């Protein structure tokens, strides 16, 4: 065949050379909080701060122009998928949104997760995966050549949530070392509590765990925390800690984790953070919540400047922008 | 921590400074037709004309580059969501599409509308909301710091539909004052008829209302029209007005509004606009319809140049582009 | 009204003039494999090769900036819709994703396919349509002024799949003429087999058809192949052809095509391609599959360099990029 002149010269293209391939994240999968240390967290939070500056000043940039993110949600999570989609878009990248959660046509026809992943990576440069089964993200990462980011695998891990939680503490209070952090609510099934607790054991903190008896932190995790020498206090009553804490991390009691609805009804409203309770808290402290909430925090608390949970949502955007840029070698 | 050089300099960024913050729309919510007057409608239609020129000449621009629109549809509406998505994309902006309508994961977990909105606004610069309940858009607007555009709240308002309807009359006939406009079909439940009628009372028009007895225009709206001094005529038969009208605005009898299906069956095909009927209409007049139609207009009428309903759809794109640009201060 | 200066000068706009309106595809609908010949296939494959180069080097470009693709799937197909979405995005274009397949609100209200298409074309520059009914794409193309690309109409056609299949053979083996291609599996209902077979009859090939008796190639298609003078061989056993074939095109027995589930159970695992079987195949040959697979190919075969089915998926991206650029006159 006669060679003809190329019809286009890649107008508008941005180089795909990594600008920082030695950032410790380049082409890595993000599967678990256990893969982070204080050093790479400091790097990531530094990039996330830049992302916040970027969003506030100009909204978006072309850093990931030319990159496509497949957003694959086997179960719906509006908050998480929206956050990843906005993150990719604000970096100039494109998104394949597969967020229905209901009926993946290929899956309905019997396709395996590895085959679905190996298919989608042909179209994309990074895969964000939400799946109801523990270990699904690892399976996907093992077969994919592109980076896989775990956006939650059942009762397993949800590392980007833990990262944004820790980043929020850093941003709101200027440090992590030296703080007293209380986890409140469902500490037994609460995936976010477990992941954040693991990250916090790398810092010089004190931890309090406030829950009803049947929702106490699992023993193995408690032992892990103690083994690191972290001072720990357990109580049934948030009033026991409210005056001293720097961070009150409140969680929803998740109805879907209970098989016995009576047990759920007994504990669902065990804790309610109210303006009255907040009067007893320090002037400089924050209330966090991974959201959605269903009653654990009185909406009247929203007006309190210490209510950090919606700023926490925004931090999720910056952290995910930082992660996407980092795994693609652009930060 | 040692300060390191910024990793990127906001490549491809566009200024977020409003170019026209005094346009009367900047950072405003768009909730109801009652917030418009002849002056700001003239401004909006002027911008919409530019948008049409833009789409025809170059398809898209970078006016809203760096901005993200959350498109949140609690009930599905393919036409409206597609129109808003295309509008944002043709302005260079990005979209978070939440258009499933079925199962919002957070909502399923019990999250309130205010919390969902306060979450999504952390990711986005403008929120387009469709909700089955009257007043939902107002609730959202009250809590959101970003502008909220009502894309329909149940039997309440659907202001962008009314705007595109009025814009279509202006574009097709060059004016609104002096026209005779007939509304045909379901005038009782038809949200679009009510909203357009309200807008038209600001102009010097004559209005005819053509419907079966059980679908007549509600008395309070009729009184509101009469109080403005608008000449009104009511009839059961479209033949009574066809020879005189400048605009024939036809609507579908919406089965979903009837509890008595027998009543629906009796009126559903009460009116059919046919080529024969169109022979009696003026040479310069238009037939409009908010679509979808199910039989009120014979498809043979589509070839008639006076059939304006698909051009009306395109006008929806231009109006929504104009609104998005206006509320973000870019028009 | 006083003319005011235009508020923006179409920043970031790219010319919409076709650069190559005589490419044979410009503004054409892509409905069936029957509209292709060796000449326009050679052109298309040449462009697709450029697209691969583009994706590998820079990921994306601005060739279709300013263009919007409506991706309208009346039935879900994650693979196909993702491929088209990524294709449009990597060309710099925008997408209206209507991929739920479940509940089109307008359709639920009784809207006809022509009306839906005439609506969506007001927002978009090209429509990609998946529909469960044979002939739907033709109906859409007849009413649309923008190009319509058939992404599968029931048991009818799925031309882009056949194009990517043929392109894969060309790319993997450097030619099509002179090859021996065996189709294996469900040759009766397999839409992809039928379409690829039709394309192959334009080349100088030998074809083998391997299937259980009840899933043999339909007689009319077999006669069409023979009428072109193509040497044909039919067998029940893949072992009969494995040593000689250049291409082994394996398909899934589609459970959803069977009304008698007993009949399905009898044939579903009739063929399994294993590493043992592959030992008998030539060194330079390829195994293809349109995917998803459910057991016809042992995953252990994936490590065999002759396993081409995931590279075949990537070729789907390049072919669809080429088609989109071609119908919009940009290639």
From TrEMBL, chains A, B, C:
Carbamoyl phosphate binds at residues 79-80, 130, 158, 161, 291-292. Residues 177-326 form the Aspartate/ornithine carbamoyltransferase Asp/Orn-binding domain. The keyword Transferase applies. One of its GO terms (molecular function) is amino acid binding. The lineage of its organism: Bacteria, Bacillati, Chloroflexota, Thermoflexia, Thermoflexales. This is Aspartate carbamoyltransferase. Heterododecamer (2C3:3R2) of six catalytic PyrB chains organized as two trimers (C3), and six regulatory PyrI chains organized as three dimers (R2). L-aspartate binds at residues 109, 191, 252. Keywords: Pyrimidine biosynthesis, Transferase. It comes from the Bacteria. PANTHER family: ASPARTATE CARBAMOYLTRANSFERASE, ORNITHINE CARBAMOYLTRANSFERASE, MITOCHONDRIAL. Belongs to the aspartate/ornithine carbamoyltransferase superfamily. ATCase family. It catalyses: carbamoyl phosphate + L-aspartate = N-carbamoyl-L-aspartate + phosphate + H(+). The keyword Transferase applies. Catalyzes the condensation of carbamoyl phosphate and aspartate to form carbamoyl aspartate and inorganic phosphate, the committed step in the de novo pyrimidine nucleotide biosynthesis pathway. It holds the Pfam family OTCace_N. Residues 29-171 form the Aspartate/ornithine carbamoyltransferase carbamoyl-P binding domain. Its EC number is 2.1.3.2. Pathway: Pyrimidine metabolism; UMP biosynthesis via de novo pathway; (S)-dihydroorotate from bicarbonate: step 2/3. GO terms for biological process: 'de novo' pyrimidine nucleobase biosynthetic process; 'de novo' UMP biosynthetic process; amino acid metabolic process. NCBIfam families: asp_carb_tr, PRK00856.1.
């Amino acid at each position: 065949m006669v060679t003809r002149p190329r019809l286009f010269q890649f107008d508008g293209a941005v180089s795909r050379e990594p600008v920082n391939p030695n950032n410790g994240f380049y082409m890595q999968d993000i599967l678990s909080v256990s893969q982070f240390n204080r050093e790479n967290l400091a790097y990531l939070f530094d990039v996330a701060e830049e992302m916040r500056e970027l969003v506030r000043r100009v909204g978006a940039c072309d850093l990931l122009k030319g990159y496509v993110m497949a957003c694959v949600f086997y179960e719906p999570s509006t908050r998480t998928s929206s956050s990843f989609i906005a993150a990719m878009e604000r970096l100039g990248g494109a998104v394949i949104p597969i967020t229905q959660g209901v009926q993946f046509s290929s899956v309905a026809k019997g396709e395996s997760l590895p085959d679905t992943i190996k298919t989608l990576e042909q179209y994309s440069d990074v895969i964000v995966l939400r799946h109801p089964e523990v270990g699904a993200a690892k399976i996907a990462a093992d077969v994919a050549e592109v980076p896989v980011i775990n956006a939650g695998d059942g009762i397993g891990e949800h590392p980007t949530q833990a990262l944004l939680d820790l980043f929020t503490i850093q941003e709101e209070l200027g440090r992590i070392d030296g703080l007293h952090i209380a986890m409140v609510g469902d500490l037994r099934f609460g995936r976010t509590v477990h992941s954040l607790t693991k990250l916090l054991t790398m810092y010089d903190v004190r931890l309090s765990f406030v829950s009803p008896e049947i929702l106490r932190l699992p023993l193995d995790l408690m032992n892990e925390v103690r083994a690191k020498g972290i001072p720990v206090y357990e109580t049934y009553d948030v009033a026991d800690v409210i005056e001293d804490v720097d961070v009150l991390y409140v969680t929803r009691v998740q109805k879907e984790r209970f098989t016995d609805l009576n047990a759920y009804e007994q504990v669902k409203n065990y804790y309610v953070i109210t303006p009255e309770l907040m009067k007893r808290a320090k002037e400089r402290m924050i209330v966090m919540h991974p959201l959605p909430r269903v009653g654990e925090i009185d909406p009247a608390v929203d007006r309190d400047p210490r209510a950090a949970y919606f700023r926490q949502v925004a931090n999720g955007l910056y952290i995910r922008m930082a992660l996407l840029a980092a795994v693609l070698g652009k930060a």
